[in-house]
Amino acid sequence: MIRAKKNLGQNFLIDQNIIEKITNIIEIKNKNILEVGPGTGNLTTAILNKKPKKLIVIEKDNELTNFLEKKFTNKIKIINKDILKIDENFLDKEKLTVFGNLPYNISTKILSQWILNINDKNLWFNHLILMFQKEVADRIITKYNSKNYGRLTVLTNWKLNVKKIIDIKPSCFSPRPKIESSVLFFKPKKNIYKLNNSKSLEKITRVFFMHRRKMIKKPYNQLFNDNNQVSSKHKIDLKLRPQNLDYDTYFKLADEYEKLIS
């Protein structure tokens, strides 16, 4: 019997109704599919029943990898690696539709890494269908001027359109987590604010949201050396808090920061 490992953030989805809803979010017949964190293969089975062209799964746990190999034999391609150590841009020659019951302890790291690594000229995925703990999902989909608005919100909305599909109760998992989960649907944006280096937006948001309840004057001066030309140009009130700036303002600040350090 396979037991979930706490240190890997494992909670296996077992509710067949929820699994069916997830696999019906988008047409996957004859599509190339990637599943991250397949666990014991419950969602994997449902995906295979939809007859995809190809199914790749990424599983870090050696015990689960052996279990999946016996369960599915040659029906799937298994990559036994840490998802955070894989260059997703080289997973496959064709674009993938991605499903993921992401480990709670690294879900924000995975999403942030994927966003920052997106190659605009050769996008590796068509859609992302990902599960997060509800608290994280709410932070991703919130709007500015909200207490949940933060770094992850800005990074996500830079390159992706996102919407919530469903909330999932703890009873749908084994073992039961203490919190609810949510499934989000991501689609690449057609028009993306152009930055030379994605790390510039990561730096701007990290510094600004480090003290999210305080005025932005201090992080602004830290990044722009007390020069008010940028804030004046974009009409930014330095008495505001980080949550009061919309996405576009952060994109513009990242652009100005790139010019400053180039």
**Series of secondary-structure elements, N-terminal to C-terminal:** EHEHEHEEHEHHEEEHHHH
What is the C-level CATH assignment of the largest domain?
Alpha Beta
Provide the number of structural domains: 2
Strand order of the largest sheet: 4-3-2-5-6-9-7
Rounded radius of gyration (Å):
20 Å
- Largest beta-sheet details: 7 strands, mixed
Keywords summarizing the entry:
262 residues; alpha/beta; Rossmann fold; Helicase, Ruva Protein, domain 3; 2 domains; seven-stranded mixed β-sheet; elongated
Could you walk me through the main structural features you see in this protein, from its secondary elements to its overall organization?
The chain has 262 residues and is of the alpha/beta class. The protein has two domains: 6-188, Vaccinia Virus protein VP39 (Rossmann fold); 198-261, Orthogonal Bundle (Helicase, Ruva Protein, domain 3), CATH 1.10.8.100. It contains ten helices and nine strands. The strands form two sheets. The chain has a seven-stranded mixed sheet with strand order 4-3-2-5-6-9-7. It has a two-stranded antiparallel sheet with strand order 1-8. Strand 5 (96-101), helix 4 (107-117) and strand 6 (125-133) form a beta-alpha-beta unit. Helix 1 (16-23) crosses helix 2 (42-49), helix 6 (151-159) crosses helix 10 and helix 7 crosses helix 10 (247-261). The longest helix is centred in the C-terminal third of the chain and has 15 residues, at 247-261. The radius of gyration is 20 Å and the shape is elongated.
